[in-house]
Amino acid sequence: MKVTITVNGEPIQEDVEDRTLLVHFLRDIANLTATNIGCDTTSCGACTVLMDGESVKSCTVLAAQADGAEVTTVEGLAGQGGELHPMQRAFQAEHGLQCGFCTPGMVMAAVSLLKENPHPTEDEVRTGLEGNLCRCTGYHNIVRAVLAAAEENS
Amino acid sequence: MSIMGTRVVRVEDPRLLTAGGTYTDDLRVPELAGAAYVTFVRSPFAHARITGIDTSAALGTEGVVAVLTAQDLDDVPPPPADQPIAEPMLARDTVRYVGEPVALVVTDGRYQGEDAAELVNVDYEPLPAVIDLDDALRGDTLLFPDAGSNVVAADDGGAADQAEDPFAGCEVVVERTIVNQRVAPVPLETRAAAAAWADDRLTAWVSTQNAHWSRDAIAGGVGLDPSAVRVITPDVGGGFGAKIGADREAVAVAWAARRTGRPMRWVETRSENLVAMTHGRGQRHTIKIGGTRDGRITAYHLDLVQDAGAYPRQGVLLATLTKAMATGVYDIAHTRAGYQVVLTNTTPVGAYRGAGRPEATAAIERAVDLFAAEIGMDPAEVRRRNFVTPDRFPYTTPGGMEYDTGEYAAALDRVLAAAGYSELRADQERRRAAGEPVQLGIGLSTYVEITGGVPELGETARLEVHDDGSVTAWTGSSPHGQGHATAWAMLVHDELGVPMDKISVKHGDTDALAMGIGTFGSRSLQLGGTAVHQAALDVKERARELAANELEADKNDLEFDQAGGLWRVRGTPDIGLDWGRLARLAGPDGLTADVHFTSNKATFPFGAHVAVVEADVETGKVRLVRHVTVDDAGPILNPILAEGQREGGIAQGAAQALLEEVLYDREGNPITSTLVDYPFITATELPSFELVDMATPTPVNPLGVKGIGEAGTIGATPAVQNAVVDAVSHLGVRHIDMPTTPERVWTAINEARAGQ
């Protein structure tokens, strides 16, 4: 089937197999490989992107479901001139990433979290990121990064 | 001024945060244009004979390029005929665990692979599966009948030679069998490989911790000279020991590329990963500890059974490391540690963050707590009375380890002070007296571990100063999250004064650097970092000669201005040669240094952890509320990186203590083979951690550093487990096996109550 998905502001039209997952559309068709696949059960959140402003796990969305939608991946987060988004800046400053594999999904989930709750407590950050797994950081600095980004919002 | 100890944010991060890393499945290089996809057909049986494989249905499906089985392994070196136990690339006549690769399907499209794999018809004749350790030891069913036993290695630690019973004179003896359960490493990036055959050479991209070992494994497996194989390590999304070297799947992908002439890509699904990547731990400990009522431990025995899984990959190494580190931080007169390494029809067991040392620490730290409970003494006090004291270093242990430096009592005192230990005990007392439903548990562990083991392997580095004054540092070490690009640039900057943004750190290309070892066993800084440091010193020495020649001065009259990165003749501040100039002066050979740094001594970091849990005695639900640690790995190059290593390890340790376990049913079917079923620890199950600094240098290497990568799991696992037991010890509970799930805690409480 033919779908048109606007990815990071750029409409991409493609004839895809019906069963094509959004994450594979992003990686193999849009050629945006930052969004990763870490599981096959919607458990890990490595593939989290924003679809029409809401965070979704793109391994559990069909490209067909995203037809006509606006999708933002971590590649679309920095400003036009390449200046980092406050969340990206906070992740670097607080060492919120190590191997970097969960990071694009984690950052997008965190952006979505602050959109819904601009000034979360530590517990709210932890609960909000429960669906995003990280094996490297013990979440310690991820939580600090999100709190720091929230602080910058205020 | 030295940059050592400065909190430098990572140079890796902007790329990872904006474009994402380039992991193996992200590669869009020309060599892989038109690559086919590899999908493995895996055994659904834990133990079975293969009586036939019919590939015709799969081969007749759209998009299927090839289906390869063991029958096709006619162009690779056969397994050594004189060894009864060998792990094939694809199972030939017997499968020995659920998930073992039996065939591989090559397809044009990504999704076609899974469809076609289901159409490969394998006839199996099930055999009895050996899952239970005692069944495996008994050996009624053998995984390799020609080997005559399921036990692949055993050492009783000299039990037969012990003339007298060392426990005979003890006032108190406690004995117990405890389980250090099997867990899954679960790096967020699963295993992945790609390969291309061109001009009689094989290029393989592997998600690995060791490019060079992978090159050798692939060359050996495929039957090529190592010089005909180039391995490239792209970004690696975590390894934790389970990506050491190249697994059989990566070798098979390379073989398929060579055999068909078509480039290949492979990335496993998480469900495959949870059954086919090595698991960690998997030990059963029988501990016996004895001593005096005033808290002196005089005898300790550890007998362990290592579940190696179906093929003995690193099972023997894990057991020997546990044996070597069995006595931990304690000075005990009579000790003995023995092991049996046994095969079962389960996924092979390999290294997982700590690899044998967390198991040793868990055993003795649980034993010490059992001893303390038996004599009714505070566990901190028992530890203090039995430490190896600072005046004994270097200290050779009964296990033959030479501990370099250690301040065990100081580490314990420091962590207890930071945690507010006496206040915690007072709060615990209050809750107990009030009979509150939520009780407090305080768990300790004091540990020593070995890092940079096998130091004689060393590590390589090459430094090259370019004509524009920039520097490239090649390292044989292999980062997968640790931050080598930042750390190594700091080391180079520290010696050469070249700005950080003009230093490029490269790794993981066996053509660019022919020799290297890789990252495991917390070895990177002390071996790989020292190699980079040494290369910088060598470059400086060469630069001094070049500058002396150019400035027509004696080289002893030259001085180096580190801040400005300039060489001058002493007393002539106006004339200086910068690095670019010196590189140009070096001529066609360039201003370079190649170093292979080796050492003859490992290092022994140590520390002390305090875990605080709240346990609901009505439901058994436990929550980790605080975790305070001292982890002393010597001087710290970059505290940001070292703290990150500690935090990640603490989480994995807490995960093993509280939640995670790989489970099989009696037939060997894995029942934790997805992330829905495997309880990977999340942010909600952890607190923020409280890290306390301590730095005791080692004389073993010029930087004075030890390894920090595995301290977290080694220290945290027993601290959290001890905290859970402590929370309900007033109810008569002495031990709860990991993971300390609500069901287990609740059951332990009820059994203790029933027994009183």
What's the arrangement of secondary structure elements?
The complex is a heterodimer of chains A (154) and B (756).
Chain A: E1 2-7, E2 10-15, H1 22-29, E3 48-51, E4 54-57, E5 70-72, H2 86-93, H3 103-116, H4 122-128, H5 140-153
Parallel strand pairs in A: 1-5
Antiparallel strand pairs in A: 1-2, 3-4, 3-5
Helix pairs in contact in A: 2-5
Chain B: H1 13-18, E1 36-42, E2 48-54, H2 56-59, E3 64-69, E4 94-95, E5 101-107, H3 110-119, E6 121-126, H4 133-138, E7 151-155, E8 172-183, E9 192-198, E10 201-206, H5 211-222, E11 229-232, H6 248-260, E12 264-267, H7 270-276, E13 280-291, E14 297-309, H8 315-324, E15 334-343, H9 357-375, H10 379-384, E16 395-396, E17 402-403, H11 408-419, H12 421-434, E18 438-448, E19 459-465, E20 471-475, H13 484-496, E21 503-507, H14 524-551, E22 558-561, E23 566-569, E24 577-578, H15 579-585, E25 591-597, E26 606-616, E27 622-632, H16 639-658, E28 690-692, H17 711-727, H18 742-755
Walkthrough of the structure:
The complex is a heterodimer of chains A (154) and B (756). With 154 residues, chain A is α+β, with helices and mostly antiparallel strands. Chain A is built from five helices and five strands, in the order E-E-H-E-E-E-H-H-H-H. Chain A has a five-stranded mixed beta sheet, sandwiched between helices. In chain A, a hairpin with a 2-residue loop joins strand 3 (48-51) and strand 4. The longest helix of chain A has 14 residues, at 103-116. Chain A is globular and about 45 Å long. Chain A starts with a strand and ends with a helix. In chain A, 57% of the residues are buried. Chain B has 756 residues and is an alpha+beta fold. In chain B, the strands form seven sheets. In chain B, strands 3-5-1-12-9-10-11 form a seven-stranded mixed beta sheet, with helices on both faces. In chain B, strands 7-15-14-13-8 form a five-stranded mixed beta sheet. In chain B, a hairpin with a 5-residue loop joins strand 19 and strand 20. In chain B, helix 5 crosses helix 6 (248-260). The mean pLDDT of chain B is 96. Chains A and B meet through helix 1, helix 2, helix 3, helix 4 and helix 5 of A and helix 1 and helix 16 of B.
